[in-house]
């Protein structure tokens, strides 16, 4: 009489079988990773940029395109980037420490010179002398923003005090009364946002464009 044989799994065999069934395959690891990569690429690399660009162009078109300023159908600059006005018939902006030329939008930078640096002292003295030479009869104190560079080197604004300091020179060069020039500065003075965010400021490019429109410059 034969016995009924019942297979009995040993503990070691059971552990080996469980380990084999729990080991992930290469396909089970790579496939989810690729799906996640593709999904994130589509969301962050395609959908999000398209959405942001579309909203910007629809709602803030001028700002999204660089806040460009046009005159006579031509782009003459940006309201966000200063320009290097040096002739005495125009208002001068803040000095710029960018290289290889002033107000270089591709190389925004400050001078990084401390108040005890002799190079800064010499630069400020030279700028003061240039302002004095352009308007010898002006004995007012020179506003600090006319002789020190901004942190970006691209600041398009000066303080109202800096613009008014230059008003006598402009009035003489443009054959305008001092009151007319001062009124022009007042008209182009931007007040702090909501009355207290930021400082009062004057966009030099906008002011000079209005000046050119009001009175042609005399030959220097």
Please summarize what this structure is.
The protein is mostly helical. The chain has helices at 11-22, 26-59, 61-64, 118-134, 160-174, 178-187, 204-214; strands spanning 68-71, 74-78, 157-158, 189-190, 201-203. It has 2 domains: 28-65; 67-214, no CATH class.
Give me the secondary-structure topology:
Blueprint: H1 11-22, H2 26-59, H3 61-64, E1 68-71, E2 74-78, H4 118-134, E3 157-158, H5 160-174, H6 178-187, E4 189-190, E5 201-203, H7 204-214
Antiparallel strand pairs: 1-2, 3-5, 4-5
Plain-language structure description:
By secondary structure, the protein is mainly alpha-helical. The protein has two domains: 28-65; 67-214, no CATH class. 47% of the residues lie in helices and 7% in strands. The protein has seven helices and five strands, in the order αααββαβααββα. The chain has helices at 11-22, 26-59, 61-64, 118-134, 160-174, 178-187, 204-214, and strands at residues 68-71, 74-78, 157-158, 189-190, 201-203. The strands form two sheets. Strands 3-5-4 form a three-stranded antiparallel beta sheet. Strands 1-2 form a two-stranded antiparallel ribbon. A hairpin with a 2-residue loop joins strand 1 and strand 2 (74-78). Helix 5 crosses helix 6 (178-187). The protein is elongated, with a radius of gyration of 33 Å. It starts with 10 loop residues before the first helix and ends in a 6-residue tail after the last helix. The model has no long low-confidence stretch (mean pLDDT 87).
């Amino acid at each position: 009489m034969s016995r009924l044989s019942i297979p009995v799994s040993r503990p070691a065999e059971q552990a080996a079988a469980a380990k084999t069934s729990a080991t992930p395959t290469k396909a089970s690891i790579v496939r989810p990773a690729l799906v996640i990569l593709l999904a994130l690429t589509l969301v962050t690399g395609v959908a999000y940029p398209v959405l942001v660009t579309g909203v910007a162009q629809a709602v803030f078109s001028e700002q999204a395109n660089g806040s460009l300023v046009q005159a006579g159908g031509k782009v003459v600059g940006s309201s966000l980037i200063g320009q290097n006005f040096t002739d005495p018939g125009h208002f001068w902006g803040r000095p710029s420490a960018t290289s290889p030329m002033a107000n270089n939008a591709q190389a925004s930078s400050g001078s990084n010179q401390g108040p005890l640096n002799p190079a800064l002292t010499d630069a400020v003295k030279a700028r003061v002398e240039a302002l004095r030479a352009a308007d010898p009869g002006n004995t007012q104190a020179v506003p600090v923003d006319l002789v020190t560079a901004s942190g970006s080197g691209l600041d398009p604004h000066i303080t109202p005090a800096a613009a008014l300091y230059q008003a006598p020179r402009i009035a003489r060069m443009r054959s305008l009364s001092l009151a007319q020039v001062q009124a022009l500065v007042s008209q182009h003075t931007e007040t702090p946002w909501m009355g207290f965010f930021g400082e009062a400021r004057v966009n030099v490019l906008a002011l000079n464009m209005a000046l050119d429109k009001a009175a042609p410059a005399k030959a220097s």
